[in-house]
């Protein structure tokens, strides 16, 4: 037996090799232990708190908890555990059949271990609940057979313990006592109430309680209710008949297996649909008539149908939203059919083969080769989500869930393809608010904000309580400068889900733009309090602080955001800009260089780097940075303006004037650009043109304070620090609360204290 077990384990491992390193699929992330449950308190919550895990299968989720302690987020260990448990179930099936003296036990174990219909249960990490509960189910069955023979308390207690653990792993195992009664009837030809029925009463009670509880959880916590589940009682009978034939067919001809099968239309007006339940009744009747010769076919059918009962359609389960059938639903139900078929082959060998043992062994090897190859091919699609969903759509183009998930997965990497899948989801499932939400997300990613707004509005119409849809609607409206509408959407998101930090953070941003700084700061601080580890909340708080002139605080928040997500170029750039504004130029240069490495195609990052390098007198490097910004994005006025400032400091006045004029052609009406152009023209001796530009800049400035500040900024940018200081001082005299002018004066003082070499490139009159 040890040799058989080792060979079977090796064969099963080999057949599932393509899935060994498969990634997380679909709802795996809701099963693999989440961060908030990884502590000892989290383990207590798994057992004691409904809703802490997606389904209340505490033993399964405890197994996930322990596995995470062993190998963290790596998936290899999870896959091996599933394969080992599946192999254990096959070995337990062999032991049960040997205990019952059923021929072909080894063949049945081989078929069960390598049948491709079980790939979904083994290769999908979330289906640990299937393989774990299956091993416990079969272990309990073996223990009960020992009890039936010996009638010892120890065997009964072992059965009860294993059965309870099976129920705590997955409640579909509630069918075990019914299956045991069928087995006992098959053995004896009759049932004795006292001997056979009474010991199983506690198991029936526990199983019924577990089943009813799970059905309630499916409705209350998972969402197994609504239009997708509205079938009449008669229609459920039609569905059950079709489901039974479907699973029988896949066991005997496992072709075209797919992760999501087409969802049938069940219609009691369709006469052809009555053929399925009628065929089931005829099959059972034939087996009943055959019972005088052999009770095995009837017993196998009854056990098969009884074990399938939770998935026949009489009880609503969440996956019915996508399809009424799934391979993993028949994991345990396949056992009696596999046992019957294997016993039939072994019996034929005993009758007709000259060497029955060799015949059955050959059948087992042939089955291993054929089924193992099919399983190897089937398990390849579980290597990653993209492969799984694309394979699903090849075999079932109507699988809207696959379209939906591909739309989500590809939104960042390939938004155009994501858009195709998102539109297909809406077409196939027009009553699903989440489909419009995903389509809105893709359109938002593509910058098509007007279209995104329409999709989000449809999403919130269909699903008013979807806080994230309101949040993203607000984001798109904000991008369109429809600020009051954006605020209303963020307010609604916060009302629906007060704990949604993203919505509080976004609300803070829009309040700042609406010139409501106190409320803006409060909203951003609420977001950070709710989710201190959310990088975008820290970043948004930093942005609001920066816009309110609290640069030191902003720097700390930007740094906090980057500690959480170090690869965010936008936060890196804003940190550099805040440091630059504080006069911490060396730090700013380092941060700009990091931002440039993260976003090599960003002109604005290179402009910031060039500006800071120019400030400290590293003119050649500044010129190179600004020139690359202009080449990267020729339509950015700021890039041309900063390039012009560098050129002017280097004395290349003709080129500087050209860059100033290019900047104004892109973005007219910016006073600083006109002041810079005026300075360059004055140095060229074109006094009249210079005065005209300066007069135009004065008119463009909203008020005298803005005029002085704009002139000061332009003068600072070309190294005229003394004159810049005078302008900022005048601005501060007119507006004593003008923090930007005060910061500019402090920054100028830092520049004036730079080493002598740093002043190279400034006009001689302005060098210290």
Which percent range describes the beta-strand content? under 5%
| C-alpha termini separation | 92 Å
Global morphology: elongated
Mean pLDDT: 92
The total beta strand count reads: 0
The helix count comes to: 39
Task: Report the radius of gyration as a whole number of Å.
Answer: 36 Å
Largest sheet geometry? none
Question: Which residues form runs of ≥5 with pLDDT under 50?
Answer: 757-768
Helix vs. strand class: mainly alpha
Characterization of the model:
With 768 residues, this protein is an all-alpha fold. α34 runs antiparallel to α35. Mean pLDDT is 92; it is low at 757-768. The chain has a domain at 2-32 and 73-379. It contains 39 helices and no strands. The chain is elongated. It is 71% helix and 0% strand.
């Amino acid at each position: 037996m040890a040799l058989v077990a080792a060979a079977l384990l090796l064969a099963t491992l080999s057949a599932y090799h393509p899935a060994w390193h498969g990634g997380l699929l679909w709802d795996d992330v809701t099963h693999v232990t989440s961060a908030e449950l990884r502590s000892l308190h989290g383990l207590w919550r798994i057992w004691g708190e409904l809703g802490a895990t997606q389904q209340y299968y505490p033993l399964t989720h405890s197994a996930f908890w322990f596995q995470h302690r062993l190998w963290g987020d790596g998936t290899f260990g999870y896959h091996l555990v599933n394969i080992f448990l599946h192999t254990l179930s096959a070995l337990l099936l062999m032991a049960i059949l040997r205990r019952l003296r059923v021929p072909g036990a080894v063949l049945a174990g081989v078929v069960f271990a390598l049948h491709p219909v079980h790939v979904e249960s083994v290769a999908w990490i979330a289906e640990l609940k299937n393989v774990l509960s299956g091993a416990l189910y079969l272990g309990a069955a073996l223990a009960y057979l020992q009890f039936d023979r010996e009638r010892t308390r120890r065997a009964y207690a072992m059965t009860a313990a294993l059965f309870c653990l099976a129920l705590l792993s997955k409640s579909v195992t509630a069918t075990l006592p019914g299956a045991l009664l069928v087995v006992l009837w098959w053995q004896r030809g009759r049932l004795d109430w006292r001997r056979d029925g009474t010991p199983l009463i506690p198991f029936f009670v526990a199983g019924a309680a577990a089943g009813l509880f799970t059905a309630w959880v499916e409705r209350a916590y998972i969402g197994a209710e609504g239009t997708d589940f509205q079938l009449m009682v008669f229609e459920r009978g039609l569905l059950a008949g079709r489901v039974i034939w479907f699973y029988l067919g896949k066991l005997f001809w496992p072709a075209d297996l797919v992760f999501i099968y087409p969802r049938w239309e069940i219609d009691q007006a369709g006469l052809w649909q009555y053929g399925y339940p009628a065929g089931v009744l005829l099959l059972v009747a034939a087996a009943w008539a055959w019972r005088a010769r052999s009770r095995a076919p009837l017993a196998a059918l009854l056990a098969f149908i009884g074990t399938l009962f939770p998935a026949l359609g009489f009880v609503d389960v969440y996956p019915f939203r996508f399809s009424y059938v799934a391979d993993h639903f028949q994991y345990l139900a396949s056992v009696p059919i596999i046992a019957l078929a294997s016993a039939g082959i072994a019996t034929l060998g005993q009758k007709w083969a000259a060497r029955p043992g060799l015949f059955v062994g050959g059948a087992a090897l042939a089955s291993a080769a054929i089924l193992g190859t099919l399983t190897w091919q089937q398990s390849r699609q579980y290597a990653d989500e993209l492969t799984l969903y694309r394979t699903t759509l090849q075999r079932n183009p109507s699988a809207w869930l696959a379209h939906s998930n591909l739309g989500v997965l590809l939104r960042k990497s390939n938004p155009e393809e994501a858009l195709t899948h998102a539109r297909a989801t809406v077409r196939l499932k027009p009553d699903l608010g989440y489909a419009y939400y995903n389509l809105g997300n893709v359109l938002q990613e593509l910058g098509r904000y007007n279209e995104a707004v329409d999709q989000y509005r449809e999403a919130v119409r269909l699903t008013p309580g979807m806080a994230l849809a309101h949040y993203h609607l607000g984001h798109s409206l904000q991008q369109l400068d429809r600020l009051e509408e954006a605020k209303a959407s963020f307010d609604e998101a916060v009302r629906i889900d007060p704990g949604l930090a993203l919505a509080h953070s976004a609300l803070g941003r829009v309040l700042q733009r609406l010139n409501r700084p106190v409320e803006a700061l409060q909203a951003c601080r609420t977001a950070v309090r709710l989710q201190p580890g959310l990088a975008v909340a820290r970043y948004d708080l930093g942005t609001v602080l920066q816009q309110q002139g609290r640069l030191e605080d902003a720097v700390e928040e930007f740094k906090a955001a980057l500690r959480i997500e170090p690869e965010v170029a936008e936060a890196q750039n804003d940190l550099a800009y805040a440091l630059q504004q504080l006069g911490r130029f060396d730090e700013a240069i380092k941060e700009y260089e990091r931002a440039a490495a993260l976003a090599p195609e960003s002109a604005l990052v290179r402009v910031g780097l060039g500006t800071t390098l120019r400030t400290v007198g590293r003119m050649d490097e500044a010129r190179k940075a600004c020139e690359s910004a202009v080449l990267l994005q020729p339509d950015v006025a700021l890039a041309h303006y900063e390039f012009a400032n560098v050129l002017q400091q280097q004395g290349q006045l003709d080129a500087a004037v050209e860059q100033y004029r290019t900047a104004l052609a892109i973005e007219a009406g910016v006073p600083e650009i006109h002041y810079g152009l005026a300075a360059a023209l004055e140095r060229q001796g074109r006094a009249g043109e210079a005065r005209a530009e300066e007069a135009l800049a004065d008119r463009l400035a909203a008020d005298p304070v803005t005029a002085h500040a704009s002139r000061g900024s332009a003068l600072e940018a070309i190294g005229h620090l003394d004159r810049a200081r005078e302008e900022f001082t005048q601005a501060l005299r007119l507006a004593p609360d003008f923090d930007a002018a005060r910061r500019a004066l402090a920054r100028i003082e830092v520049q004036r204290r730079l080493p002598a070499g740093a002043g190279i490139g400034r006009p001689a009159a302005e060098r210290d």
